Amino acid sequence: MDYQTVDADSFGRSLRGIGINLLVRDVLAEITFLETVFAMKGHQATRDFAIVNYGSQVFQLHRDGTYVENPLLGLLPENPPRGAGIEIRLYDTDPDDAVARAEAAGFTIFQPATDKPHGLREAYILCENGYAWVPSQPKG
Q1: 8-138, what's its fold?
Q2: How remote is the C-alpha of 78 from its chain's centroid?
Q3: CA 111 to chain CA mean position, Å
Q4: Which end of the chain, N or C, is less surrounded by CB atoms within 10 Å?
Q5: How many alpha carbons lie under 13 Å from residue 44 in its C-beta half-sphere?
Q6: CB atoms within 10 A of CB 27
Q7: CA neighbor of 76 nearest in space, from 19, 131, 30
Q8: What would the pLDDT profile of 101-116 be if each residue is shown by its tens digit?
Q9: Could you tell me if 47 and 64 are in contact, meaning their C-beta atoms sit under 8 angstroms apart?
Q10: Are 131 and 125 in contact, with CB atoms under 8 Å apart?
Q11: Rounded average pLDDT over 49-65
């Protein structure tokens, strides 16, 4: 599927399994973060919406204002952090490389790359919306 040109109806009908849709204050800023730190690709990015892919996985970003008719909007806190309690794990991303890119771009490193007892080396990088992005790979 060409995420850059697919229309909303076709894209919606293609979705299967489990999906992630993140509400963010600024879609374009979040795309910059994801592309810079994790080499993800944003498609059809506007101030209101973007399709994002990480390898073969796809998810969506929506600006808060697009949820005006959605009951979830009322649950968003006025002040950060917003994403507390969710980890978005990226099992195919080198945590040391991601931390280096995040530091160079001025993003928040919540926990540097660390070997964990469950067999992974992982880091915690926070985006400005408070989501914890966790690049992880098996310890080598």
Answers
A1: 2,3-Dihydroxybiphenyl 1,2-Dioxygenase; domain 1 (3.10.180)
A2: 20
A3: 17
A4: C
A5: 19
A6: 24
A7: 131
A8: 999 999 999 999 999 9
A9: no
A10: no
A11: 94
* Each residue's pLDDT tens digit, 69-125: 777 666 666 666 677 778 899 999 999 999 999 999 999 999 999 999 999 999 999
CB of 96 closer than 8 Å to CB of 58: no
Rounded distance, CA 104 to CA 62, Å?
A: 26
pTM of the model: 0.86
Residue 88 φ/ψ, nearest 5 degrees: -110, 105
- Name the residue among 10, 22, 33 with its Cα closest to residue 87: 22
Element (H, E) at 31: helix 27-38
* 41-75 as b/e: b if 16+ CB within 10 A: bbbebeeebbbbebeeebbbbbbbebeeeeeeeee
Q: What does 77-128 look like in DSSP terms, one character per residue?
A: -SSS---TT-EEEETTS-HHHHHHHHHHHT-EEEEEEEE-TTSEEEEEEE-T
Edge-to-edge order in the sheet of strand 21-24: 21-24, 57-63, 49-54, 41-43
